[in-house]
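# step 3/5: fold
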Amino acid sequence: MSILIAPASFSFPSACTVSPNWTYEQAFARNRGLISEDEQQSLRNCRVAIPGLGGVGGLHLITLARLGVGKFNVADPDSFEPANFNRQYGATIKSLGRSKVDVMLAAAMDINPDIEICGINDYIDKDNIEEFLTGVDVVVDGIDLYEIDARRLIFAEAAKKNIPAITAGPMGFSTCWLTFAPQGMSFDQYFDLNDSMTYKEKIVAFLIGLCPRMLPLKYMDRTVANPITHRAPSVSSGCQLAAGVMAAEVTKTLLKRGQVKPAPYYQIFDAYLGKHFCGTLRMGNRSPWQLAKRMWLSRDWKVRFPDFQ
């Protein structure tokens, strides 16, 4: 199988020649009992887009590859560095300085040599978003926490194509997740985002909307977070929780079984506190309580980061 790594465009590779010691059926036989044979073949033929292969994106790819999903479009412009080691699947001594796309494509193919992956060593933007979403059944958010404009673009374009999009992010020792689908609120509607907002306003809205319960603040030193340097506390367990709940949502979405509640429905599970909450923000981020929290975080950042706009 050929893997195409290109800066601006890509095409779908054909299936590779599989080792005689490996078959798809044997590799994913232990899914049986949870996933039927017909459903497994359906997953094999589904295509998932993952923009971003860092803390959660890389784990999303590996988790879905082990589920037996057979086709992916992935993108990331970065290379591995020491700061990635505490949480990113592909971060090892051998991968230092190497492209995240190159490393993660190789890791996925080591799991399933029959996999079809289209990789791009670049950001997803208005020039390549159309190709990136071609043939895609579901989008899984692996974008950096602070890259709000790229996230808005991808979710908006997915909505135009009626492609469900899932965001499951780590927050401390917890994960918060939402699914955006045609029958629910759009990404911008839920988070209350628009083009006239400043970058700071958009980031504040995204953080407060992603984790309405804010459970991690009970044990997290939030002063470590710095929106200017794009730093935020993050551990491997939170990323792996995010990948786990994401895979469950993807399974239900792709196989059209179970109940997938779209935004404004949200969920958060905190393993450190042993708490799970779910609810519906019927007004999204525009509810009085959400607006109050957004105002609190904006004032806090104004004091700590007076130059941040």
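# step 4/5: annotate
Confidence is low (pLDDT under 50) at residues 1-16.
# step 5/5: archive (pending)
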